[in-house]
Specification:
By secondary structure, the chain is mostly helical. About 65% of the residues lie in helices and about 5% in strands. Strands 1-2 form a two-stranded antiparallel ribbon. The chain starts with a helix and ends with a strand.
């Protein structure tokens, strides 16, 4: 049978997506083989869906709606609780892979015409260090959906009125505060495509931003940590260098470089800042928009972090590996900036970009595998709950150790 160019394109798309999916799974196979609930998975999402049903979809947490987690918990309700970690892992996996599916699709053919560059960016995305908290994790799936919302805003829609795009945008836009931070991008894209664009997708993004903004303003003082920031210039530089510039490039290797970094933090900060400013000005519009978004993400994280309820925030954030969810999007922006420079016509910038990308890839063996979640005994508790009489209260343990929740059998 003759293979057409379109069929070959689809076949390659499936191969790339399958291989990159396998990489995500191999980084922590227990997420599929023996999944465990994590933090708010049980304490909030499942418990509130179990007790309140559909109404839980409209309950804000940390000052905003977290729709993807709520939907997963509602979908899990008809199933025995034993299967809930598997269902949550499935939702988390899908959320993590949708950005890759979008980036490799035809909607980015005109934005990043070189397919090899899109493949490289996808490889960077699934291999990036300092991303343990967002790997196959439903509670932190919102960070991946932030990328989904960005890609849907800047990508060329496959057709003018795409219902699946709209539904995905609503879920992504109402999962976390990111639609608010992406409002400038939505307005830029709306203006840029005012004569030919699909206005509805920009309107949806801005409407989601408005909804989340209302929740944020109404509940910010009640839902965020009241501890002081512990802000200082030294802490700021240490946060950025340890967790983004060096930690986001070399991951665990950063720990081996601590002695070398002492006394050189400001120099490292200045070097990477200059490199990224050059990438910003020499990169395409889509990269400029993503850089703007990532800057908004890290600034909002620094202004209102949720690291500790009992200790100042910034000194803890300055430690590599703590709160890595806050740094994932800035890390991606940085690494994509290196890709931008590696394709630059200036030989010096091209060499620097390629050297930094090779450095990141050389550090992959030190960062590839993530530690398994602790076996908590959840499944034993779930089996007991399944056979327990109505009215029985059962406590379920989950990761991280110390987190647990209780359910009353209906």
């Amino acid at each position: 049978m003759k293979i057409t160019a379109r069929n070959q394109e689809i076949r390659n798309y499936i191969i790339y997506l399958s291989m990159l999916s396998l990489v995500v799974i191999l980084r922590r196979p227990d997420a599929i083989l023996h999944p465990e609930l994590w933090a708010e998975d049980g304490v909030l999402w499942y418990t509130q869906a179990y007790n309140s049903g559909f109404l839980s979809l409209f309950m804000p947490e940390n000052g905003y709606l977290q729709t993807i987690s709520r939907i997963a918990a509602l979908v899990a309700q008809p199933f025995p609780i034993y299967y809930v970690p598997y269902l949550f892992a499935f939702f988390a996996f899908c959320a993590q892979m949708i950005p890759v599916a979008l980036l490799l699709s035809r909607r980015f053919d005109s934005i990043i015409p070189d397919k090899k560059i899109r493949i490289i960016i996808s490889i960077i995305y699934v291999l990036m260090p300092n991303s343990y908290e967002v790997n196959m994790n439903l509670t932190n799936a919102q960070w991946h959906l932030a990328l989904v919302l960005f890609l849907l805003l800047v990508g060329n829609a496959q057709k003018r009125y795409n219902i699946s795009d709209y539904m995905l945008m609503v879920v992504a836009g109402l999962s976390g505060p990111f639609s608010v931070l992406l409002s400038p991008v939505a307005m830029i894209e709306w203006y840029r495509n005012k004569f030919s664009g699909d206005y509805l997708r920009y309107a949806i993004a801005l409407a989601c931003a408005a909804v989340q903004a209302v929740f944020i303003v109404a509940s910010m003082m009640q839902t965020r940590s009241t501890e002081s920031l512990g802000a200082s210039m030294d802490n700021f530089v240490h946060i950025i260098v340890n967790n983004i510039f060096v930690g986001g490039l070399l991951g665990n290797v950063e720990n081996l470089l601590q002695k070398a970094l002492v006394g050189n933090y400001y120099a490292v900060f200045a070097f990477f800042s200059i490199i990224l400013v050059l990438a910003f000005f020499r990169g395409p519009l889509a990269y400029k928009e993503f850089s703007l978004f990532s800057l908004c993400v890290i600034l909002s994280a620094l202004i209102s972090p949720m690291i500790s309820l009992t200790e100042p925030q910034w000194p803890l954030m300055a430690i590599f590996g703590i709160g890595d969810r806050y740094y994932v999007i800035p890390i991606i922006s940085m690494l994509v900036g290196f890709v931008v420079l590696s394709a630059d016509r200036n030989i010096i910038l091209k060499s620097i970009g390629r050297f930094l990308l090779v450095s990141m890839l050389c550090a992959v063996p030190f960062n590839f595998s993530y530690p398994d979640y602790v076996r908590t005994g959840f499944y034993k508790e779930a089996m007991y709950f399944a056979g327990a009489p109505r009215g029985t209260v059962v406590k379920f343990d989950e990761n991280p150790i110390g987190w647990n929740f209780s359910l009353t059998k209906k």
